[in-house]
Sequence to fold (300 residues):
Amino acid sequence: MGMADLVPYHDRDGLIWLDGALVPWREAQVHVLTHALHYASAVFEGARAYGGEIFKVSEHSERLVASAKILDFDIPYTIAELDQACRDAVAANNLTDCYLRPIAWRGSEQMGVSAQSSKIHVAVAAWTWGSYFPMDQRLKGIRLTHATYRRPDPLCAPAKAKAAGLYMICTIEKHRAERTGYSDALMLDYRGRVAECTGANVFLIKEGVIHTPDPDCFLDGITRRTVIALAKARGITVIERAIMPEELGSFSECFITGTAAEVTPVSEIGAFMYKPGAISETLLNDYMAAVRPKARAAAE
Fold:
């Protein structure tokens, strides 16, 4: 999709939940001196609704609150209120399958590094957003390159928060990847171990066993945990461990997971080639069934 085809996010019809009320989409604004814009004092979530039902909405709300606490602020709503705000945003825009972006940030009362008196704002927007990676690409696999930036040491950044500032290097690496014809980039951690992509966790398969990096310095994604549970329900062994980049050539399959990416097989990481196979396809199908309310009810 070219830039000319894009509908800018500030100029759309609909309603956004903002600080406890649904407001017209175009009026959901912040001031240019908002602390979050200058100092990245914002935390956010990405969730999806399928068939009108938001998948694991409370887990997303809980993580938003936890992320805010790590950034030293308290969200002025309960988990139940945040869950309802998400549902209200979906309903107000007459959506059934959609993406949601809850976000909480420090406002414009103080400007400077210190901002204890800033008001904490919360918004939830929902819009139709298809697969992060198109379905026709999925089973043939996407191409990843190697990132230059690494996920930071937890002693150098709030690695367990889904915080806006942590994604600055992700944007740089995603742009670098797309400029050279790749879909995404695989990032190492500060120790040189395989970590994750710019917005998704990574899984590698060898001899019927799934290996995935231990998320000790990056987000243990909600989709990641869901897919691990689905794999175990199939009797597939999942090993969480340190994976070194020199091991990448020893695996036969690879896929990535995330709310936006869902389950997306990978065909190559730089010089290493993979063939999306039975395990990747099975878990892609199992995940898509798990997120659909009717399919899930039938399974239960």
